[in-house]
Specification:
Blueprint: H1 13-34, H2 47-73, H3 78-105, H4 113-120, H5 137-156, H6 159-171, H7 173-181, H8 189-193, H9 198-212, H10 214-223, H11 230-243, H12 255-272, H13 277-282, H14 285-292, H15 294-305, H16 314-343
Amino acid sequence: MSGADYKIAGRDAVLDGLRAISIALVLIHHVRAGLGYGVSPLFPFTGVAGVTLFFIISGYLITDLLLVEKRERGVISLSRFYLRRGFRIFPAFYVFLAVMVVARAFGEVSFSSRELLASATYWRNLYQGGQSVLQHTWSLSVEEQFYLGWPLLLKFGRLRHALGFAVAATFIQPVLRFFVRGSYFYESGAVALNSAGLETILVGCILACALRYSDAESFLVQHLRGLTKPWLFGGALYVLYLEAPNMTGPITVILPAVRNLLLAGFLFSVLAGRHHPLGKVLGWRPISFIGVISYSLYLWQQPFLVGVEGRITPLVGISLSLVVAVLSYKWIEQPALRYRRRVE
């Protein structure tokens, strides 16, 4: 296994395949809920599992790209970073919000003006509201808040300091939970695994920092070579989600961290073994294409799959989500990215 196997410097089909898994978990969860089924022992994963995987991929990829830029150019350009992120995220997102506002005017969807403001300004994760077509923007808010802080730390700090901060922030999360909710423990393990936040993204950052930090990279590559088997981490995640509903008390505090570490291990093992069968499956064009359009698909699946029982069947909802996501990617995302390349 060479360093080139897991270090990324651009678009990567295997990572897109992993994004496809992420969005598939979200879609399966919403379809299952729409049909009136709960979590099954045959498939115990929830939609938040997909969001969590996407968080870790995002933390890993953003950190790796920033560290490559710092190594090759000697400095991280924050203006270039925010320009790239802005053109990547804002056009499709604000078009989605605009369409939802029009749909609300015609009585097709319902949400408050305060929730709209929370989504549009990326603090929906702090808004205590009910289920709506904007509910899923909480995860986009977490991502945007991550973009505001982490690149600054990488730009002005040393790699080991950034790594230390990410590790400390990850472990301090239970303490912050106590101050926010007044309790260290979750009601059950299932509730614990249904939470994700900035600390989840930072686990992906930790992996990227470790693989760019020579001593940590040497340890990971030499001593964890035998663990680069995705099925080991996938199996452990299955058992974790299967048994979580039966867990209560102090153990629930560590379950999100365990999940995050297992997902980071899964990511590392897939990237390290990208030439193995799973890597080839994930890189297969039809699967990786779902990962390419996953951002638009995540935006648009909500109005077609959540709260539409009796009006739209899950199959129709999935089909409409895919069609609109492809159109969003072709007509909004790609033109915005082409324009960004001209102004960079």
